[in-house]
Each structure stands twice: as structure tokens, then as C-alpha cells.
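Worked Example 4.2. Consider the chain below.
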Amino acid sequence: MVKRKGFANFIGVLAVLLILSGAAGAIWQVKLRTAQLAEQEKEPGVESSAYTLAKGDYSNLTYDNIHVDRPVYDRYTLKQRLEKGLPTMLPALPHYTAEKVAYLTFDDGPDDVNTPAVLDVLKAKGVHATFYVLGCMVEKNPAVLKRIFAEGHAIGNHSYDHDYDILYKDKDSFVAEMEQTDDIIMQTIGVRPFIIRAPGGTVGMFAADYYEKLNLLGYVEHDWNILTEDATAKKPSAEQQICYIDRRAAGHHKDNMALILMHCNGGKEETVRALPGIIDNLRAKGYRFGVVTPITPQPW
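Applying the procedure from the previous section yields the following C-alpha cells:
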């Protein structure tokens, strides 16, 4: 009788142990599956307080989550978005018009002389700007693009090499060159821009169907409403460029913004020399400085 009781107790303990073991195994399986799902759902890209990195579903691209002085980038290329069935068209966002903002923008870089010189001035003045870069120049000077990115400036797409004959053949040619440059930028800094600038500006270059195509693909194009004329045949001196901006930035502008076109490639030494005075004058007029993002107003 005692032996039977002892055997029954043993069986009972063994049963409890088996139940506990099974429960522990089930919990472990759940944890493993949860970890696997989390790994599958993890999106590429390095998060940073220096910029806003769009989620795959764009759920974090809200007006309250985009800041005037913080760039916005995508963690996916357009090709990756299409392959994954992710959205490409950006959510509708209101424009930022709450205060006077000056957007300093520099086209046609990065080169290895004037772009670093511009960056030195911006760093000394504590200002962030926007650089619309050419794919061919990024290929030549990847370290300069990395510096632009590391120092918190916004990077935009300005085509591969500014060749109007290829670029403006039709909307598909334009988009193909944007994608080509996107890929070069992504390979260099690990993100791609939403913002673009059409070489020469959109007026006289874009047909109506260009805008529709770009909107569907999530590209945000900005021209300008103020310029230094540093890419014209006038070749203005630094003093003339300062005067141009001082005069043109006076008074009230649409949506409280001054979107200023400059260049940072070879031959733009006078622009580098003018930049400190331009910044000082804009500050004296009550402007703060911002970078171009999807909430930046259109200049026209």
C-alpha cells in the first residue's frame, strides 16, 4: 500500500513537471515567434534626432513631427517601395507659415572647394541650409556629401548632371534621372531625399503631367523666390549679392518665407564671400533659418 502511494506521488510530480515543462516550452515558442516577427518588421535606416526618417507607411510624417530646421528623408528607394507594396505618394501636409523663415539653398554641388567653404561659414554662423546636389558630383565628392549630412543640413535631388536635353525629354526621362540620383545619394549616406529641384526651375521646363507624376511618386519640388544671380552672366561680386538679397528680402513675402537660390560649385567664390553678410542681414530683418522639407511653402 505504501509503495503504491509513493508511486502515485511520483507519477503526480512527474505530471506536474511535464505540464510546467510544456508551459515553459510554449512561452519560449511565443517569445521566439515574437522576436522573429519583430525582426521581420524592423525597417532599415538609422534613426536620429538630427532628421526625420519616414516609416514605410509614412505614419510619422505628420505636421507636428516635421520641424523647420530638421531634414526629412526616406529609408527606402522608390524601387524598394514599389517592390514592397508601400505607399509612394506623401500624405497631405499643411505648409509652415507661422513665422518668417529664410531657406538658404545651394545648387550644383558638392564640389571639393566651395561647398566645404560654404559649410565652414554655415557652421560658424550656426545655420542649417539645403543642398540640391547633382548625382555626378556626389560620385566625385562623396566625403563632402557625408559632411553635409553629418552637419544637419538638408539634401535635395538636383538631377544627375544638369543635361537639359536628356532631363526634359519627357516626364519619364525626368523621373528616371531623379531615381538614378536618389540611388547614388542612398548608397552614399543611407537615406534618400523627398525634396527635388528642377535644373533651371520648372517654369518653361515642366509640362502639366510632370507635376502629377512627381506627386504620385512622393517628390516635392521647390523653385525659389529670391536669388543672388551668382549663376548669371552678370557674375555679381560678394557686395552686389549681399545688396540683392538685402533688397529682395525686405517687406512681406508669400507665406512668410524667403527661399533663396545660390550655388556652391566651382567658380562661386564670391557667393562664399557674400554668405556671412547675407546671413547677418536676414537675421537683422527678423528671419529665422530653416531647411526645405515637405511642409515648406511653395515660393510662387
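The chain is about 45% helix and 15% strand. The chain has a mean pLDDT of 91. Compare this with Example 4.1 before moving on.
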